[in-house]
Amino acid sequence: MSANKYIPLPVIKRLPRYHRFLGMLKEKGVDRISSSELSRQMGLTASQIRQDLNCFGGFGQQGYGYNVVMLYDEIGSILGVNNIKKAILIGAGNLGQAIARHMTFSKWGFELIGIFDENPALQGKELRNNIIMPTADAPDFCEKNSPDLAILCVPNTEEVAEMIEKLVESGIKAFWNFTHIDIKAKHPEIYVENVHLSDSLVTLCYQLNSDIE
Amino acid sequence: MSANKYIPLPVIKRLPRYHRFLGMLKEKGVDRISSSELSRQMGLTASQIRQDLNCFGGFGQQGYGYNVVMLYDEIGSILGVNNIKKAILIGAGNLGQAIARHMTFSKWGFELIGIFDENPALQGKELRNNIIMPTADAPDFCEKNSPDLAILCVPNTEEVAEMIEKLVESGIKAFWNFTHIDIKAKHPEIYVENVHLSDSLVTLCYQLNSDIE
DNA sequence: TAGATTGTTAATCGATTAACAATC
DNA sequence: TAGATTGTTAATCGATTAACAATC
C-alpha cells in the first residue's frame, strides 16, 4: 500500500523515543512544538528530527512547527500501536514474571495470550490473567492461536534452541529475546529484538574501570 | 597510566559481546581462532574485529590468529571484570527482584551491597543476601559505603528524580537505568546505561506492523 | 621457506549535521 | 507582509569495509 521506502534502522530505533516524548508533551497539554525545541528537550539536533520525520511524511507546517497530538498519532500509527498483536511468554521465572507484570503490553497493541514454563510447580498458576502452561505445549498452542510474538525469558539451553525452531515453524513472526541465542543467524526473515542485559551491565563495568586508570 | 586513546562508542558496545563469545569458545576448549572464523561465528566482518581489537593493542599473531584464553583475559581486563565494584539496587518490585535474582553480578566484578524499596511491606525482607531498606536511607548508606553503581528499577516519579540528585551528591558514579528519567542531561560526567525495555518492544511493534502494509 | 593471518592504511559507505529555498 | 520554521539538498563526519604490506 505505502511507497515502502527503505527506512534506515537508526531512524526506526529512534521512533519509540519520539513517541514517548510526544506522549509526555501531549499529557502536559502542549499543543505545538518546533523541531528546535523538541531537539533541545530530547538532546539531539533539530536537523535529525526533521530528517527522521520526513522519512514518513511532512507532518509539520512551515513557520508553525508540529502539532503535538497530530504528530503523536502519526508516529503511533507508523509504529502500529493500535493494531492488535498476540504475544506469548516462554519462561515465567523471575525475569518472565517481571516482564509479565511490569510491561503495559496493551499500550503498544500487544495482548499476552499464553504463558509457558518448564517448572511443574509454576504450571497451573495464574500470571497476568493467564494460566501458566507446560513449555512443551507452546508449539501446539501457536498452531491453534497464531500469536505473532514470542517473548523468551529462559536460560540458554539446547532445548530452548529447539523450541525456537518449533515456534518459527508454528508461525511466530517475531521474538523479544532475553536469551543469548542467535535467532537471526538461522532465520533472517524473523524479526528479533535482543535484550542482552548483561552486555549493558558490562558496558558500565568498562566505563567505571576507565576511571581507575 | 594508559595512552588513554579515544575509543569510539560503537567499539565499546561490542566488547561485551566479544567477551561473551570468547568465553564460550574457551568453554568449548578452542585454543586459537582467526578473525575470519570469529567473524563468521559472530556475524560481522573480520576487518571489524581486527580494527576493534587494535584499538587496545595487537593481541594476535600473524599467520596464527588469536589465542582464545589470552584474548578472553585481555578483553576481560579491558572491561575490568576483575575489579570489584559495589552496587546498590533502588526498587525491589517485580523488575528489581528479577534483576537481583537473575543477574550473576559477580561475573563482572559487581557486588550488590544494598537494596532499597519504598514499600514498607518489602522492607526488612531478604533478597540476594541483602535486607531491603527504606529508599530514603539510600543517600546516607552511600555516604558510608561508597558504592559505584546504582541500579534504578523504580517507576518514573518526581521523587526518583530527586533521589538521583542525592545519589550523585553521595558519590554514585554510574547508573544502570531502567527508568525513563534522563540522567545524562543534568549529569554529563556520570556513566549511564539506559535500558528502555518498552522502546525495544515498540521496535518489534513497528516491524510486525510493516508486514501488514 | 611458503602459507596464513595479522595490523594498519586507504577507500567506501552511510548517517548526521548544516544550509537554505520554499512556504505557512 | 515579515518572521518563523519546515522540507530537502548539499557538506561533513565517522564508522565500516577492503586491501595489502608486514611478519609469524
Description:
2 copies of one chain form a homodimer. The radius of gyration of chain A is 20 Å and the shape is globular. In chain A, 46% of the residues lie in helices and 19% in strands. The mean pLDDT of chain A is 95. The relative contact order of chain A is 0.09. In chain A, helix 7 links the parallel strand 8 and strand 9. With 213 residues, chain A is of the alpha/beta class. Chain A has helices spanning 9-28, 35-42, 46-53, 68-79, 94-102, 138-145, 158-169, 183-186, 197-212, and strands spanning 32-33, 60-61, 65-67, 85-90, 110-117, 126-127, 130-134, 149-152, 174-177, 191-194. The interface between A and B is large, with 62 and 62 residues. Chain A binds a DNA duplex (24 and 24 nucleotides) through helix 3 and strand 2.
For the structure shown, list the relevant keywords.
homodimer; 213 residues; alpha/beta; seven-stranded mixed sheet; three-stranded antiparallel sheet; 9 helices; 10 strands; 19% strand; globular; DNA-binding
